[in-house]
Design goal:
- With 509 residues, this protein is mainly α.
- It is built from 19 helices and 2 strands.
- A two-stranded antiparallel sheet has the order 1-2.
- α14 crosses α19 and α16 runs antiparallel to α18.
- The longest helix has 37 residues.
- The relative contact order is 0.15.
């Protein structure tokens, strides 16, 4: 039985195994996004100053580690050759798989550090965030880089992304299960649940990366003569006569002239901010806008749907991308976000069913757009290689440089959200009992009556005005992005011509 199972695993398509890596990330990361702020604020009782210091340091490290790790990984690919470029060699892919096999289990272990109090809340908050993000960054960089390294054509890349979305949807089921064991007063069940998730992730990363490495090594031996071809493809060879080494300063200068890269990071910065704003404030919106009008089971359903539906919906979006192109689909989603937000604002906070649909759909479309933007980055990898005549496609490094500019949105989301809420309503999530403090029954009766409607109105304005503002900024920036249509076809054709006679596409790996 065991041998039969191993045989079935070994014969799975490469795209399926590649997509399964998303499962072992999402089962942990969705739980992290949903509960880490609430854990430190409500369970560990972190003070406001420590929270802001931790988020500020995290903002800096979160922005710097992506390009740092990308540079350490891909700096050898930046050299140029007058004779042409070598793209997606077996050694490049194997190097990324080795990195995933090491950092995946470490990422799962760092996830566990949040759910046990082992230091002062402020110090633990800072160390846990930085450690967790470091390993998550390494996993994301190499996993996303494989999307650009394993395939060049849009069809093959959408196939890879399809399985990533499918397995991410399955991984989002952890949100449903977490809601059943989450209890601020009794943390034991939730801790056991997190340990089980981490063990599944460790086993999954180990098995998937091992299968991919064995398959790529086996197929590589069949496709290439080891004595001749691997010498030409070897990525650390130093004696290339026409090679010019690129320094970090020169690479940054090249990026500063990459017009489409600059407009894209503007769009993605706003998108990352909006995604994490929805994740951080989703429970707050449910509590203050819907808690007295829907049942607990309905709230649990909305919460689970908001994490699973984006990945399932993305399967449909990918089919639209094959037909109309990524650029047109993303632009349509921005218009849809703007239209839904305006309709919700005009309808007001008392339309309960419409509010439920909007809260869920807002997160669904926002997260779905985030998934599609990875395909745009792979197109930017192609354009970067063609424009600068790279020896190899520095895919991990370009993903890292995108994150350098866009990752601050992840930190700005809770900071700006809590600040806006406090400024408008006076509600401070760091006060132990903010409502009790402000609605004492005898001396402040009018405040007691007025506070809850004010807080509810403030949450509603946050819910609708944040997506309206984000959509307008994104539509303005996206209209300047030109890597689509005929220009994209030309870039694809030039990179495809460079790969003729070299590494096979993902379908034959």
């Amino acid at each position: 039985m065991g041998l039969r199972l191993l045989a079935c695993l070994f014969h799975l398509p490469t795209a399926v195994i590649y997509g399964s890596l998303s499962l072992f990330v999402s089962i942990l990361h969705n739980v992290f996004l949903l509960y880490y702020v609430d854990t430190f604020v409500s369970v560990y009782k972190i003070d406001k100053l420590s929270f802001w210091i931790g988020e500020t340091v995290f903002l800096i490290w979160n922005s710097l580690n992506d390009p740092l790790f990308g540079w350490l990984s891909d700096r050898v690919f930046l050299s140029t050759q007058q004779a042409g470029a070598e793209i997606s060699s077996p050694e490049v892919v194997l190097k990324r798989l080795r990195a995933l096999s090491h950092n995946g289990p470490l990422f799962a272990i760092s996830f566990l550090s949040f759910w046990v109090s082992w230091a002062h809340p402020g110090l633990q908050f800072l160390l846990c965030l930085c450690m967790y993000d470091s390993f998550l960054t390494m996993v994301d960089l190499h996993h996303n880089a494989l999307l650009a390294d394993l395939a060049v054509s849009a069809k093959d890349r959408t196939s890879l992304n399809f399985y990533c979305s499918l397995f991410s949807a399955i991984g989002s089921l952890s949100v449903f299960m977490s809601y059943a064991v989450w209890n601020k007063e009794d943390f034991f069940s939730f801790r056991i649940f997190c340990v089980l998730l981490a063990l599944c992730s460790i086993v999954g990363f180990t098995l998937s990366t091992q299968l991919l490495r064995q398959r790529f090594q086996a197929d590589g031996k069949a496709k290439w003569d080891q004595e001749s071809t691997l010498k030409e493809l070897y990525i650390e060879k130093l004696s290339v006569p026409q090679e010019k080494r690129i320094t970090l300063a020169e690479y940054l200068q090249q990026l500063s002239r990459h017009r489409n890269f600059l407009w894209f990071v503007c769009v993605n910065l706003v998108q990352v901010f909006h995604c994490h704003f929805n994740s951080n404030f989703f429970p707050l919106f449910l509590e203050h806008l819907l808690s007295d009008q829907i049942s607990v089971s309905t709230g649990s359903f909305l919460l689970g749907v908001s994490y699973i539906a984006p990945h399932l919906n993305n399967l449909y979006f990918l089919s639209l991308c094959r037909r109309y192109g990524v650029y047109a689909v993303v632009r349509g989603l921005f218009f849809l976000k703007l239209a839904l937000s305006v309709v919700m604002f005009l309808a007001g906070p008392d339309q309960v069913y419409l509010l439920c649909i909007f809260i869920a759909s807002n997160r669904v479309f926002t997260e779905g757009t985030c998934k599609l933007l990875n395909l745009v980055v792979t197109d930017l990898v192609d354009e970067d290689l063609v424009l600068n005549r790279r020896k190899q496609a520095a895919s991990a490094l370009l993903f890292g440089m995108v994150a350098l500019v866009t990752k601050p949105g992840q930190t700005f989301a809770p900071l700006i959200g809590t600040w806006l809420l406090c400024e408008y309503t006076g509600y401070d999530i760091f006060q132990r009992n903010p409502l009790n403090n402000m609605v004492s029954p005898q001396p402040k009766l009018e405040s007691a009556v007025a506070l809850e409607p004010t807080l509810r109105q403030g949450c509603f304005y946050l819910l609708v005005f944040v997506p309206i503002t984000c959509a307008l900024l994104q539509l303005l920036s996206w209209s300047q992005f030109s890597l689509h249509g005929k220009r994209l076809q030309v870039v694809k054709a030039q990179r495809q011509s460079l790969t003729q006679g070299q590494a096979p596409e993902v379908k034959t790996i």
